[in-house]
């Protein structure tokens, strides 16, 4: 039985209940439902309001520095000896990753709703930093829930959040990682219904978050599409992006989903290999279930207990995945593959040495896939990869592994 009838357009989801085929939806406590419906009503108004769009465009241009460049990686292309490789350089954004695209959209929404307190969850700390940044910019107090383990692992980002005026609340339930932080943030939201806005950091969670975050991140793909047409006079043959919760990937993919000639690859964290539990490949090695308000592919055991994944990059360390990716996987529109820690580390070093760009460990996973694919493709073919974050936050991790005396 095919539960996912092929849609006329891959870009038309979700339906009014937030479903992408059998995925997505709104699995939340009854107390949260009025909040979710409020948010949805405001989002429905905002997304067609030219004032909202103008304000967001202005901030994207003057605060973040958009459009981010489309860069032809000439030396890397020569080194790999196949397809032409282009990067969408979202690592050049203010705060160093694509997270700011989403946070600016959501803080404008929070303001429209008259909310006076921002809460957020964070894993590696990139979304926490972006949330604290926009909260400072708009003069609102910000509380960031962060797993206690991550607080230790990601000390520089904790320090940045505090400098920006945010309060970081360590969460020690579970394994003290992103999943636990998200549970705690949802709990806070239920108890502070009137004044609080919950800023989710990826294209997951209950409807309308997956759609909303996708729309804010689609600026990546919309710009890249236009830039590519300008530079090459045609669309790329393949898009490649790293997938944690899936926001930067869906942001790149979505504007191209109906372009049949464009193949797409999402790269998950294969960690230390898919045999054991030390990976975070929810789509490749997981199964459908419900987590954080939506149905999607998850890493879970036979009893439905969520497993704690592993990745060298804390930003890919999420046992779920945005529901739209689950849908695109089952439809076969996007291919999802794992990349191991060691492969990502190698890619990190290659890019640093050939192009003088230190990437974050998350897009290093995407780059490792580029390294596999490009040599097998023709010199007249084009790969476009989302370089979604810079590596400043990762130099200590990498330095330690490489024995550089840090
Ligand atoms: C947070 C983060 C990710 C993972 O999140 P997505 O929602 O999958 O994009 C990937 N790369 C970087 C640089 C990040 O900061």
Automatic annotation (TrEMBL):
Pfam families registered for this protein in UniProt: PALP
Co-factor requirement: pyridoxal 5'-phosphate
Pathway recorded for this protein: Amino-acid biosynthesis; L-tryptophan biosynthesis; L-tryptophan from chorismate: step 5/5
Enzyme class at the top of the EC tree: lyase
PROSITE patterns: TRP_SYNTHASE_BETA
UniProt keyword list: Amino-acid biosynthesis, Aromatic amino acid biosynthesis, Lyase, Pyridoxal phosphate, Tryptophan biosynthesis
One GO term describing the cellular component: cytoplasm
Matching CDD domains: Trp-synth_B (cd06446)
Tryptophan synthase beta chain-like PALP domain segment(s): 65-389
Family: Belongs to the TrpB family.
Function statement: The beta subunit is responsible for the synthesis of L-tryptophan from indole and L-serine.
Subunit structure: Tetramer of two alpha and two beta chains.
UniProt-listed HAMAP family: Trp_synth_beta (MF_00133)
Protein name: Tryptophan synthase beta chain
């Amino acid at each position: 039985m095919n539960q996912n009838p092929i849609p006329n357009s891959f870009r038309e989801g979700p339906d009014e209940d937030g479903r992408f085929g059998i995925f997505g939806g709104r699995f939340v406590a009854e107390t949260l439902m009025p909040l979710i419906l409020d948010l949805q009503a405001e989002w429905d108004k905002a997304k067609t309001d030219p004032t909202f769009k103008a304000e967001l465009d202005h901030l994207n241009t003057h605060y973040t520095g958009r459009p981010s460049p489309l860069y032809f990686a000439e030396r890397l292309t020569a080194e790999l000896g196949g397809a032409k490789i282009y990067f969408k350089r979202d690592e050049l954004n203010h705060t160093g990753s694509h997270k700011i695209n989403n946070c600016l959209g959501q803080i404008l929404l929070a303001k429209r709703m008259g909310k006076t307190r921002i809460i957020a969850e964070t894993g590696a700390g990139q979304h926490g930093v972006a949330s604290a940044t926009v909260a400072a910019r708009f003069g609102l107090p910000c509380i960031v829930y962060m797993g206690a383990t991550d607080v230790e692992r990601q000390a520089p980002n904790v320090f940045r959040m505090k400098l920006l005026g945010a309060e970081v609340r360590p969460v020690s339930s579970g394994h003290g990682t992103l999943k636990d932080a998200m549970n705690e943030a949802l709990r806070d939201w239920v108890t502070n219904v009137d004044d609080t806005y919950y800023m989710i950091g990826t294209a997951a969670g209950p409807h309308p978050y997956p759609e909303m975050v996708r729309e804010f991140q689609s600026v990546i793909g919309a710009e890249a599409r236009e830039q590519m047409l300008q530079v090459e006079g045609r669309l790329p043959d393949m898009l490649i992006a790293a997938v944690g919760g899936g926001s930067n990937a869906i942001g790149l993919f979505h504007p191209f989903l109906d372009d049949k000639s464009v193949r797409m690859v999402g790269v998950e964290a294969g960690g230390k290999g898919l045999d054991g539990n030390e990976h975070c490949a929810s789509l490749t090695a997981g199964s459908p279930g419900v987590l954080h308000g939506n149905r999607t592919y998850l890493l879970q055991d036979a009893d439905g207990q969520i497993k704690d994944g592993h990745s060298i990059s804390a930003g890919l360390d999420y046992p779920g995945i945005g529901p739209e990716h689950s849908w695109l996987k089952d439809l076969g529109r996007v291919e999802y593959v794992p990349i191991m820690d060691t492969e990502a580390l190698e890619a990190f070093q290659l890019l640093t040495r050939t192009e003088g760009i230190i990437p974050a460990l998350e897009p290093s996973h995407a780059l490792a896939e580029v390294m596999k694919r490009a040599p097998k493709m023709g010199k007249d073919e084009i790969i476009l990869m989302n370089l979604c974050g810079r590596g400043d936050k990762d130099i200590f991790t990498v330095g330690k592994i490489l024995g550089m005396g840090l």
